[in-house]
Amino acid sequence: MKDYYILNGKTAVPCDLMTWGRWFEKADRQVANDTLGDARVSTVFLGLDPQYGEGPPLLFETLVFGGALDSEMERYSTWEAAEEGHAERVRRVTANILEALYRL
Fold first, then answer.
1. CA-CA distance, 22 to 45, in Å (whole number)?
2. Is the pTM of this model over 0.90?
3. Can you name the residues that pair with 14 across neighbouring β-strands?
4. Distance between CA atoms of 38 and 55, rounded to whole angstroms?
């Protein structure tokens, strides 16, 4: 398995360190970014596989910054899975905000 990946459109492609470094300097790695109240949900292409052990490389990451779900994170193997995961995290953050408003 390769350690470095770049995007060709929305597809992750293995590459060598030099290719990765040149691409990573200028690449737009953002898959999605949403601000919901005091929380932000960000999904990006990592370009590196942080996974240990078996399984497909986990090259995309969704992370929540702020709010009640602060620091929740999930990783994915494909752009499509990352988009779906991002949308799900946005739904969870939104539901949490609405629940907090109803408690007021």
1. 15
2. yes
3. 5
4. 35
Q: Say if residue 1's pLDDT is above 70.
A: no
In DSSP terms, which residues pair with 35 in a beta bridge?
Answer: 40
Question: What is the average pLDDT across 12-29?
Answer: 95
| Residue 37 burial (CB count, 10 A) | 15
21-50 per-position pLDDT tens digit: 999 999 999 999 999 999 999 999 999 998
Residue-wise DSSP of the chain: --SEEEEETTEEEEE-HHHHHHHHHH---EEEEEEETTEEEEEEE-SB----SSSS---EEEEEESSTTTT-EEEESSHHHHHHHHHHHHHHHHHHHHHHHHH-
The full DSSP string for 29-49 is -EEEEEEETTEEEEEEE-SB-
